[in-house]
Amino acid sequence: MYDKLFINGDWVAPRCGKTLAVINPATEEVIAEVAAGGAADVDRAVAAAKQAFTGWSKTSGAQRGVYLRAIARAIEARAQELAALSSSNNGKPLFEAQIDIEDAIATWDYYAGLAEQLDARQNAEVPLAMPGYRSSSRLEPAGVVGLIVPWNFPFVTTAWKVAPALAAGCTLVLKPSEVTPLVELQLGTIAQSVGLPAGVINIVCGSGSDVGSALTVHPDIAKISFTGSNRVGEIVMQSVAKQVKGLSLELGGKSPMLVMDDADLDQATDWILGGIFYNAGQMCSATSRLLLHDSIAPKLLQRLKTATQALKLGDAFEEGVQMGPLTSKAQFDTVMGYIERGRAEGLTLLTGGTRAEGFERGYFIEPTIFVDVPTDSALWREEIFGPVLCVRTFSSEAEAIELANDSDFGLAAGIISQDSARAQRIAEQLQAGHIWINSLQVVCPETSWGGFKRSGIGRELGPWGLSAYQEVKHITRPLSELESN
Ligand code: NDP
């Protein structure tokens, strides 16, 4: 299967004959060779999706809901196998990969529910102030969509795009990251196992410059939904502009965690560590800028240092492992580059700052904390996408809010305080798409996902995630015509 692409309901050999070596980042061993497509394969996949759109777009929401639920059950039946595959490719501890698969299942079920509700919403009358006319609205699928995903949460990011696209009645071509294609390819086998009509889902692995860019310029693609870096997001935006395609962008973050003077320090320690070291910090929503009230800073930093040094690093399948390696050599080099830059800037290290000891192989980096980081430091301002936390202190609520909002990004934020009214007041002033009060990265299918400022354009999840794949159509006519018929 890995030597094929999933096009028109079948596994087919790519036309360009390239392969991608897929690596286990804990061992640096090649675990699979995956077929890589090119522009000619994108053409085939888009043609299949276009043909399938004719039938799929006319199915009822209820019918599509049946397929989405079947996909959720098929994933559930293979949950352990999929989690293990994801861990071996991404490097994340097995319990994290299991959470990913559970999140994906919840997303498929949620959009099955929204698909089922769609039929009752079609041709809904829209009250008009103007007399003499009646207007009704329809929600129609956007068309054939191109979905481009990164490597940090494979199968989850994919579910966030594929499930609402199918629920809306779109057909699609998915391009997984070349780093983590293994678990994404399983979606092809799952589509086959539930009897999804051929061409509704197509999967073309390959590089961004071959497959990704071919998708963004393809004239038969109505919309691109992209999750990834700002650098590539800008390229994608320029690419789709030429054909005025629809576009959703889920990009980077540099999210703040604000810890107020009344915080429970034990809880705060857990949430701070989880917010930056889960998935080895490779999270767009990582709370990588820590803002501490200066009255609690010395005590909390001591706890953070002790707890960070106690984290168990290792292979995803080892008992008790809390943090795995970085997912690729390229990401390892990027993160080490930022750590070197921090040293060169003369930043103060609280802990970490080196390649993790005791590992002969694998892209392991010690969980790292820099303190008193100036706001003009690259480490404070840029997304590192690794296990590196930057800390500053503040002395007033107003200062904390100002520091938190002083960023090009606005994806997420955390607030830790035992004063509920105060936490709410702060949350309302933060410029970010999702704020967590006294909780850790809680993301549910019902809530939106996306950012303010340069963290992206549009929202995934919730009803907003479905709207992203729909066109709104109004049908307006004179009342007199209706009355005479
Ligand atoms: P990249 O931007 O490097 O890649 C993302 C995807 O785009 C990959 O599939 C990549 O292909 C593809 N791609 C690369 N070049 C092009 C191109 N010219 N045209 C079209 N597609 C292209 O991001 P990473 O994979 O490194 O992921 C990390 C980034 O993703 C971080 O910045 C992170 O913040 C962001 N992210 C944002 C999330 C959000 O919800 N806001 C969630 C998760 C991550 P390939 O890699 O196969 O070459």
UniProtKB/TrEMBL annotation:
Recorded metabolic or biological pathway in which this protein acts: Amine and polyamine biosynthesis; betaine biosynthesis via choline pathway; betaine from betaine aldehyde: step 1/1
InterPro entries membership: Ald_DH/histidinol_DH, Ald_DH_C, Ald_DH_CS_CYS, Ald_DH_CS_GLU, Ald_DH_N, Aldehyde_DH_dom
Matching PROSITE patterns: ALDEHYDE_DEHYDR_CYS, ALDEHYDE_DEHYDR_GLU
Occurrences of domain Aldehyde dehydrogenase (ranges): 11-475
GO molecular function terms listed in the Swiss-Prot or TrEMBL record: oxidoreductase activity, acting on the aldehyde or oxo group of donors, NAD or NADP as acceptor
SUPFAM superfamilies to which the protein is assigned, alphabetical: ALDH-like (SSF53720)
Residue numbers annotated as active site: E250
Chloroplast is among the record's keywords: no
Domain of life of the source: Bacteria
Keyword list, A-Z: NAD, Oxidoreductase
Family the UniProt entry places it in: Belongs to the aldehyde dehydrogenase family.
PANTHER family in alphabetical order: BETAINE ALDEHYDE DEHYDROGENASE (PTHR43860), BETAINE ALDEHYDE DEHYDROGENASE-RELATED (PTHR43860:SF2)
Protein name per UniProt: Aldehyde dehydrogenase
